[in-house]
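User: For a teaching handout, I'd like to show students what a predicted protein-ligand complex looks like in token form. I'll give you the sequence and the SMILES for copper (II) ion. Please answer with just the structure.
Assistant: Understood, here is the input followed by the structure.
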Amino acid sequence: MNQNITRRDFIKLMGLGAGTLTLSACGLIPPNSRFAVPTTAPVILTPLASVPVSLAVDLTAGRATLPIFSGAETPVWRYQPSVREGSAESIQELSGSYLGPIFRVKTGQRIQVRLKNDLPDPTIIHWHGLLIPEEMDGHPRYAIAPGASYEYDFQVINRAGMYWFHPHPHQLTAPQVYYGLAGLFIVSDDEEIALGLPAGEYDLPLVIQDRTFDSQNEMVYLANGMMDSMIGFLGDTILVNGAPNASMDVRASAYRLRLLNGSNSRIYKLAWQDGTPLTAIATDGGLLEKPVTRDYITLAPGERVELWADFSGRTSGSEMSLVSLPFSGFDNGGGMMMGGGSSLPNGASFDILILKIGEKGEDVIPLPSRLSTIERHDVKDAVNQNNPRSFTLAMQGMVHTINNRLFEMDSVARDEIVRLGDLEIWEFANLEGGGGGMGMGMMNMEMPHPMHIHGVQFQVLSRQLTQGSESTYQGLSGGFVDDGWKDTVLIMPGEKVQVLARFENYAGTFLYHCHNLEHEDAGMMRNYKVQG
Ligand SMILES: [Cu+2]
């Protein structure tokens, strides 16, 4: 049976402070004065009592309505789980949120999921970051019609980390994620467990998203038409775990904060409002070798970062605010800053989450100086070290392309075939910025692209700003955490980024694409083939 959180519990669980939206950091007037459903407590990851050998779950994608604000309920799309086999704690449902459920599994475990499509459109699930065979990976060619089902059956071979899942149907990924379909997939392993990191109520998953709501509390998508599609959708309301105006009660103890940028296109420049440096302990593919500190951390769509946050020195009654700092907006060439018609453009500053510190909790373990062992790929082992496989990201007409191509359902170009087992350098060169791109007519777009490769976890080898605005670059580049395993990496305007990936797990056809979901839906995605 599911670990159901009752509606009443949920209201306590989801962090929502009553009152006006907290956009004080940027001085913006809230888009409306409606009240968020008030709650103050965090989502608690129930410790896993036992880990079953296998887990079998029915997951129904369907429509629902939820109370996000006072007044009218908000229509959403969501996954409804039902456990057929396995322990209840393995599937944690957030019954008051459109997000979820949260999968809690261990490396080596077999996972069976029957996806049932109760939506009016085709859908399919992509398990973001997981190393699984092609038929399990959610390629749009496997999308199922309304009323149909899809059987997933795979083994988790990833190391401990916070992965996630979301729809991936052809040209419909962005709206389906936007209306609510997404959940976390948290993997644990023995190496991680041995560390004794903060767990249970001290282990907080935080999914950051932006949405726009109309006066009927309904989500509004692509109100700015073509501009939203070219730039990416930017909502004017920030939500954490599906709740606007988020605040949570915490104890004066050490916490593990697991952050996912689940937004369609917004980039966050995460920081503590009081200037306390952020301590990162994990990225997309799990724990770093050792903690790293940053004044701020840049988190692009699809990326995850885990923070160590020690509130043990804080006084009861004080608050810590997680904010997004201002950064230079991206010039889209028409004199308009990137953001299209959004009242909260990329680069605006705002509060994300207020943590209200309470009494002292559990004794704090010191932050481990060593977290894990990461085997670094050696560039000398790359089969193409003298001739990296290069991908040029550029505007062609009104669309963003990869090597001048758009997505084609079944085609793989000759330069998109890799051999099973090979270590390769993949180089993404973003020509959108600084006059190097084709632009759209007279316009010269500065556009960041978070590139995601299915089927692998990779390591960032190098970054180089080759053209474009140094100051725009400097506004975010200090917040990259490239020290560990990644599956999504932000390529800034004018930047060239090289990553090292070994295609060692499964032969088959996989995807690589921009995780700005409007770009992806518009075709900024390609197949690549791992030849066995
Ligand atoms: Cu993009």
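For the handout, you might add this sentence: The longest strand covers residues 54-66.
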